[in-house]
UniProtKB/TrEMBL annotation:
It comes from Pseudochelatococcus lubricantis. Residues 5-307 form the Glutamyl/glutaminyl-tRNA synthetase class Ib catalytic domain. Signal peptide: none annotated. It is an enzyme of class 6 (ligase). ATP binds at K243. Pfam families: Anticodon_2, tRNA-synt_1c. This is Glutamate--tRNA ligase. It catalyses: tRNA(Glu) + L-glutamate + ATP = L-glutamyl-tRNA(Glu) + AMP + diphosphate. Residues 336-471 form the Aminoacyl-tRNA synthetase class I anticodon-binding domain. The keyword Cytoplasm applies. Belongs to the class-I aminoacyl-tRNA synthetase family. Glutamate--tRNA ligase type 1 subfamily. Keywords: Aminoacyl-tRNA synthetase, ATP-binding, Cytoplasm, Ligase, Nucleotide-binding, Protein biosynthesis.
């Protein structure tokens, strides 16, 4: 019986959970769920100068918002430094690693020679076969692995296929620095082994690390986990994804008004395919996901596709859930748009009533909130330039014509208010829009809005008539 599948997501807490990292976490999560296994979370915080607790919390928050849970407690890599040192010293005792006393000046000379010859820097192995008795007294050594110097190192990658490296091009990597702290390469191997990780799914920028890490596994006599190196995400122009393309933190996408389900669905289709299917429920993703259908070419990030997909999710969402989602981002997006940072009970009810019309037009929660401006706006409304234009050139006079008839309307429903506006336009011998557009401007402060008569129903008789009176009072 094969061992249960164990994957891991291992971000460095030196910044936000960026979109590429979120996709890597998603692929690990889906693979584990598909095989009824586990996904572990490891915070690789060995870079003490750049790692911050705020970044750790941002990673936790981003994963939770995306709906990606992990099994057990998150592991902090730095807390395992003693175990990493123990493994390095074991290799040293077995003659599979050695003390290297190369000085910073000697290493810089190697770098300069490599640059002059147009090749990558490689440590030349000068301390590989020398004993500590020859060591200079004033140099604290590092511990280096005795890597194979001939032949090749190969892995059978589950995405990239067979990948091989000539060992003569790979040098003896450092395991422990001169201050006794472990390097990334050693820590990753030891942690993956101790956590019983069976599958390493990560970006293909780690592909060259795979050869070096395999050297460590082989020296320790440990089995090498299956590896899958997934292509990076590029921008629409084919260049490496940058901030101008959308290489932002997951928290930024939340603030831009994307729904977690939509972002999850978009990310799964970046580099993975399942026939022509574009829309996946979480259950469908788990059932269908396989590494065999991950492509080898970089995926291209496309904001237009993400917005369209998000619009689909919004139209399908429960109205009350959308109100709650909008409330969660209001503190971030409301004040900058002249809107409140929270809803009172009355405004919340109005937003819920308006939601069927609002969500049909909006592609993001931010667009939805902006189109709901008429609900939040305080009297007298601040009109934008287009709305002011609609109330000029006779617009206020036509508004006055309909105001009296609306005040006399028996009921206040979308049907009755529409009949009043149509009758007024007919009696005045003008087109419907010549009455409806000034009315829209007076009620919403904008030239565009959800359906005018739905707007009037949401606002109610008293608020609607009061807003109309405000505009008629303008000289």
């Amino acid at each position: 019986m094969s061992a249960p599948v164990v994957t891991r997501f291992a971000p460095s807490p030196t910044g936000f959970l960026h979109i590429g990292g979120a996709r890597t976490a998603l692929f690990n999560w889906l693979y584990a769920k598909h095989h009824k296994g586990k996904m572990l979370l490891r915070i690789e915080d060995t870079d003490r100068e750049r790692s911050t607790e705020a970044a750790v919390e941002a990673i936790f928050d981003g994963l939770r918002w995306l709906g990606l849970d992990w099994d057990g407690d998150a592991i902090r890599q730095f807390s395992r430094a003693g175990r990493h040192q123990e493994v390095a010293e074991t290799l040293l005792a077995q003659g599979k690693a050695y003390y290297c006393y190369a000085t910073p000046q000697e290493l810089e000379a190697m770098r300069e020679q490599a640059r002059a010859e147009g090749r990558p820097m490689r440590y030349d192995g000068r301390w590989r076969d020398r004993g500590p008795s020859e060591a200079p007294a004033d140099v604290r050594p590092v511990i280096r692995l005795k890597a194979p110097q001939t032949g090749e190192t190969a892995i059978d990658d589950l995405v990239q296929g067979r990948v091989s490296w000539q060992n003569e091009n790979l040098d003896d990597l450092v395991l422990l620095r001169s201050d006794g702290t472990p390097t990334y390469m050693l820590a990753v191997v030891v942690d993956d082994h101790d956590m019983s990780v069976t599958h390493i799914i990560r970006g293909d920028d780690h592909l060259t690390n795979a050869a070096r890490q395999k050297h460590i596994y082989d020296a320790l006599g440990w089995p090498v986990p299956a590896m899958a190196h997934i292509p990076l995400i590029h921008g629409p122009d084919g260049a490496k994804l940058s901030k101008r393309h959308g290489a932002l933190g997951v928290d930024a996408y939340r603030a831009m008004g994307y729904l977690p389900g939509a972002l999850r669905n978009y990310l799964v289709r970046l580099g993975w395919s399942h026939g022509d299917q574009e829309i996946f429920s979480t259950e469908e993703m788990i059932a269908a996901f396989s590494l065999e259908n991950v492509g080898r070419s970089p995926a291209r990030f496309d904001f237009a596709k993400l917005e369209n997909l998000n619009g689909h999710y919004m139209r399908a969402a429960d109205d009350a859930e959308l109100v709650a989602a909008a409330e969660r981002i209001l503190p971030e997006v409301g004040p900058a748009r002249g809107l409140p940072d929270a809803l009172d009970a009355v405004t919340r009810d109005k937003l819920l009533t308006a939601m069927p019309g609002l969500k049909e037009r909006a592609r993001t929660l931010v667009e939805l909130i902006e189109s709901a401006y008429f609900i939040f706006a305080a009297r007298p409304l601040a009109l934008d330039d287009k709305a002011l234009g609609l109330l000029g050139n006779g617009g206020r006079e036509r508004l006055a014509l309909v105001a009296e008839k609306l005040a006399a309307a028996g009921e206040w429903t979308p049907e009755t208010t529409e009949n009043v506006v149509r009758e007024t336009a007919s009696e005045a011998g003008v087109k419907l829009g010549q009455i409806a557009q000034p009315l829209r401007a007076a009620l919403t402060g904008r030239a565009t809005s959800p359906g005018l008569f739905d707007v009037m129903a949401v606002l109610g008789r008293e608020e609607s008539l009061a807003r109309i009176r405000d505009q008629l009072a303008v000289a």
